[in-house]
Amino acid sequence: MSAIVQTQKLRVEYRSHELRQATKVALHGLDLEVRAGEVFGFLGPNGAGKTTTMNVLLGFVPPTGGTASLFGIDVRQPIARQRIGYLPELTYYYKFLTAEELLRFYAKIFGLARAEADKRIANLLKLVELESAATRPIKSYSKGMQQRVGLAQSLINNPDLLILDEPTSGLDPLGRMKVREIIQRLKNEGKTVFFASHELGEVETVCDRVAIVHQGELKAVGTVADISTGHANLEQAFLKIVGFQPQPLP
Amino acid sequence: MNKIIALAGVVLKELYRRKDFYVLFVLTALLTVAAGAVNFFHDDKIIRYVKDICLLLIWVSALVIAIVTTARQIPAEREARTIFPLLAKPVSRGQVIAGKFLGCWLATGVALVVFYFFFAIITGSHEHIWPWALYFQALWLQWFMLAIVIALVVLGSIYFAAPSSTSTISFIAVVGLLGLGSHLRTIALQQPEPMQFILTLIYFCMPHLEWFDLRDFVVYDQSLVPWLDVALATIYAAIWTGIFLLLAWLGFRRKNLTT
């Protein structure tokens, strides 16, 4: 299978604006490969470098060293993002627009023809069950509804790769189920899903392969079964890999 | 280009949904009333004085709209984090800057058209003269002057994170440019060297916003500005706008945006 997401010796340094503080290295030469058609879980404790990796892949942060590509195109080229969908952890959308207007705006950004955009918008609003609220401004939506708008916008271009950052964070059980259903559906359609999550149970359920990063370095990569070998479950394996030592309670 | 137009469309939608335009219409109505009141005096000097005040208000209002609207665009996108889903799409940072600029510039253009239309109708109905070509020249040049201002504010908004600081600094810069522009050369000639050289250099290197001001032509019913001069001023504005937008793009294209 060909690599859809690839990083080679990816290094990111954040320069401190304060004189006496050293440069912070967020990623130390990360090598990562996500293959076509797989659901890939990206795990790590807070501050491990997951978000930085995603920021580089999405073009928010330029790499200090190494390379990163999507579909073989350097992530610094906007065209690399033509075939991806991105769902951020929290809802970051224009709240003065309605869901329909937001989807239409993003459809224009992707260069979709009007008839095609109309069809996709109708289908997506149905998928996320927002048809009746489609003409209301997003600011009047509940948190769950806003998350569903996010999900719809991430699928507007019928992406071949979906990048999800903590996709079920803050969702109620129904919302979580919906996200899992969509991930499963995309997988069945042969799409690639790359997602960061702290929900190890969820990762175990939906992922074909996982990678664990810690302190900006790749610590493990493989199938859930491979990584869990010798441990009770993925959570135990994860804690061992990141060096967590349980302390007795005082 | 479609992406830039789509981005500009969102700027316009935000503007009228935030009710800024309603405030504009109220202001326009006040201007109309003020201009209408001159009929009571039947005095040419007073008529000109009130026309001057109305045009000054149009200038100040247009500047306020241009600066305040533009200053909040990119900082507000970063603060509300709407920039992230946007930049995760196949849109370049240059297109974001161009879209924001275009949206703000079109919005100020609409405002200017409304202002000048009301001004023309009211003054024309009292004075029975309709110098439409002169009004067009005044509006056109003011709109292009605002293009320079908007591009300057876009540049500022890349470096100053808060809309309020961008607005304040931009106001000071624009008022400074307008105020100094016409006098700096005279001041320079009165200075000893090397100050004369420095001030002269600044005079030739700064954008001259005052060249776009046709208020006196309108107030004193003067003849049209030669169309060649209008065309040259348009090119001059396009060059300065391009320079500021280029600098904004250079500052924004490699900026770290962390979620």
How is this structure best summarized?
Chain A is of the alpha/beta class. Helix content of chain A is 32%, strand content 26%.
SSE topology:
The complex is a heterodimer of chains A (250) and B (259).
Chain A: E1 3-14, E2 24-35, E3 39-43, H1 50-57, E4 65-70, E5 73-74, E6 84-87, H2 99-109, H3 114-127, H4 143-154, E7 161-165, H5 173-188, E8 192-196, H6 200-206, E9 209-214, E10 217-223, H7 224-228, H8 234-241
Parallel strand pairs in A: 3-8, 3-9, 6-7, 7-8
Antiparallel strand pairs in A: 1-2, 1-4, 4-5, 9-10
Chain B: H1 2-17, H2 20-37, H3 44-71, H4 73-80, H5 83-87, H6 93-127, H7 132-159, H8 163-181, H9 184-189, H10 195-205, H11 215-219, H12 227-253
Helix pairs in contact in B: 1-6, 2-3, 2-6, 3-6, 3-7, 3-8, 6-7, 6-12, 7-8, 7-12
How would you characterize the overall build of this protein?
- The complex is a heterodimer of chains A (250) and B (259).
- With 250 residues, chain A is an alpha/beta fold.
- Chain A folds into two domains: 3-83 and 160-241, 3-Layer(aba) Sandwich (Rossmann fold); 95-158, no CATH class.
- Helix content of chain A is 32%, strand content 26%.
- Chain A is built from eight helices and ten strands.
- In chain A, strands 6-7-8-3-9-10 form a six-stranded mixed beta sheet, sandwiched between helices. In chain A, strands 2-1-4-5 form a four-stranded antiparallel beta sheet, with helices on one face.
- In chain A, a hairpin with a 2-residue loop joins strand 9 and strand 10 (217-223).
- Chain A is globular and about 55 Å long.
- In chain A, 45% of the residues are buried.
- Chain B is mainly alpha-helical and 259 residues long.
- Chain B has one domain.
- Chain B has helices spanning 2-17, 20-37, 44-71, 73-80, 83-87, 93-127, 132-159, 163-181, 184-189, 195-205, 215-219, 227-253.
- In chain B, helix 3 (44-71) packs antiparallel against helix 6 (93-127).
- Chain B is globular, with a radius of gyration of 20 Å.
- The chains are: A alpha/beta (250), B mainly alpha (259).
- The A-B interface holds A 14, 51-52, 54-55, 58-62, 78-82, 84, 86, 88-90, 92-97, 101, 105-106, 108-111, 137, 150, 153, 163, 165 and B 2-3, 5-7, 9-10, 13-14, 17-18, 80-92, 95, 254, 256-259.
